[in-house]
């Protein structure tokens, strides 16, 4: 590890510590706003030092992407009505999940297109060099983490967008259940596990078809999992999906071997899960009851 | 070894995350969710590295899309959380005057 790498990693440690303090401060009313600003400083540090990463060759897409994304985020946060804020959080959460999915996919594309040269002598004794695809960096662990990043990111994306639709009234808030839905969910989940395992054991020979199929299945699972949950339970679902988007970032961190992604993602994953459980308790429900009972809004309508 | 180290970090972070959240007043549930959602936009770090690939490759374009999405998540997430918490502050400040 050279000096530049070491400095980047030290800055990542600082950012991680700041995130820890930020989450802690967000938990109490007096310090919450300061905690949020502190954690945004941690994010700024992480983004700025990443720009010095020596794997970055070209800055064009980075600069355009940062400007476009920041502007959209800024406008959305400024224009949103106070009452629509939870919906916006759901949508933003979905974007984070999709981003993690894309990071996993991009790493698959990169790692399967690394080229090397091989030399051989022909019958006249001349050296012939050939460019070949070098798959030696693609091991079972990388394949497994790419599958996880795609799975969790995909479920988070469509699940969050569906929750946004329900909360904002663009989709019916009523729980949608159809015959055999649970069986279908179970089959899709089982298929994802099977494909994930096949990808892992067959690495480095993973075709793009397998990646596309995994993406499609994960996107479908996100919708099907949120569909049977009532609109009244959406805050709990969004909190759970927030926890998932943290885990997706963590999985993306394993894919590219980056510690700040793993730490920050896992912090969000774990604290988000606890928060979800707390929110369920406040409603006198269990998490399993919210996810699988299939009523939610109907119960609220009946009691209120 | 590297791999074991990463898993080690992950496990410790998980325990830390579980311990960080204990008694959260219910009006802070949504801002806490929103604030930690902004932190999960940390995936922008991975997106930046992917987008910095040689231009024209598919992975660079995927990285570009990931940067846009993650930047929306990060910037929008922090700003909207700040707005939510700003609303609380005004309420808290007006209460003592009313008493």
TrEMBL record, chain B:
Reactions the enzyme catalyzes: NAD(+) + NADPH + H(+)(in) = NADH + NADP(+) + H(+)(out)
Main localization (coarse): membrane
Membrane topology term: Multi-pass membrane protein
Entry EC number(s): 7.1.1.1
Transmembrane segments: 6-22, 34-52, 58-81
Keywords: Cell inner membrane, Cell membrane, Membrane, NAD, NADP, Translocase, Transmembrane, Transmembrane helix
Annotated GO MF terms: NADP binding; proton-translocating NAD(P)+ transhydrogenase activity
Domain of life: Bacteria
Any single GO BP term: NADPH regeneration
Function (record text): The transhydrogenation between NADH and NADP is coupled to respiration and ATP hydrolysis and functions as a proton pump across the membrane.
Protein name as catalogued: proton-translocating NAD(P)(+) transhydrogenase
């Amino acid at each position: 590890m050279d000096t530049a790498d070491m400095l980047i990693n030290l800055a990542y440690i600082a950012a991680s510590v700041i995130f820890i303090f930020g989450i802690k401060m967000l938990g109490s009313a007096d310090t919450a706003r300061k905690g949020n600003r502190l954690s945004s400083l941690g994010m700024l540090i992480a983004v700025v030092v990443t720009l010095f990463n020596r794997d970055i060759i070209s800055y064009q897409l980075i600069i355009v992407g940062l400007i476009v994304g920041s502007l959209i985020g800024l406008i959305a946060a400024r224009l949103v009505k106070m009452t629509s804020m939870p919906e916006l959080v759901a949508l933003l959460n979905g974007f984070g999940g999709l981003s993690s999915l894309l990071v996993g996919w991009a790493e698959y594309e990169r790692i399967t297109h690394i080229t090397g040269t091989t030399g051989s002598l022909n019958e006249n004794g001349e050296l012939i060099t050939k460019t070949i695809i070098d798959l030696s960096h693609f091991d079972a662990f990388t394949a497994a983490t790419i599958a996880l990043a795609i799975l969790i990111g995909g479920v988070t994306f469509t699940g969050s967008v569906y929750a946004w639709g329900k909360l904002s009234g663009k989709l019916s808030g009523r729980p949608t259940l159809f015959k055999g839905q649970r069986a279908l969910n179970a089959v899709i989940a089982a298929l994802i596990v099977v494909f994930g395992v096949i990808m892992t054991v067959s690495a480095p020979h993973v075709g793009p078809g397998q990646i596309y199929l995994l993406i499609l299945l994960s996107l479908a699972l996100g919708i099907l999992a949120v569909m049977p949950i009532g609109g009244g339970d959406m805050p709990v679902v969004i909190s759970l999906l927030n926890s998932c988007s943290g885990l997706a970032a963590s999985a993306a961190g394993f894919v590219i071997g980056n510690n700040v992604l793993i730490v920050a993602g896992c912090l969000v994953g774990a604290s988000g899960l606890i928060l979800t459980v707390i929110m369920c308790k406040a409603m006198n429900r269990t998490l399993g009851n919210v996810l699988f009972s299939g009523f939610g809004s109907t119960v609220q309508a009946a009691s209120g | 070894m590297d791999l074991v180290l990463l898993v080690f970090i992950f496990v410790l972070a998980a325990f830390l995350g579980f311990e960080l959240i204990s008694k959260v007043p219910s009006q802070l549930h949504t801002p806490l969710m929103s604030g930690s959602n902004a932190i999960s936009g940390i995936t922008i770090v991975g997106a930046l590295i992917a987008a910095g690939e040689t231009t024209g490759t598919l992975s660079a374009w995927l990285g570009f899309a990931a940067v846009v999405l993650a930047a929306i998540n990060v910037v929008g997430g922090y700003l909207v959380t700040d707005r939510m918490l700003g609303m609380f502050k005004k309420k808290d400040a007006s209460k003592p005057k009313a008493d």
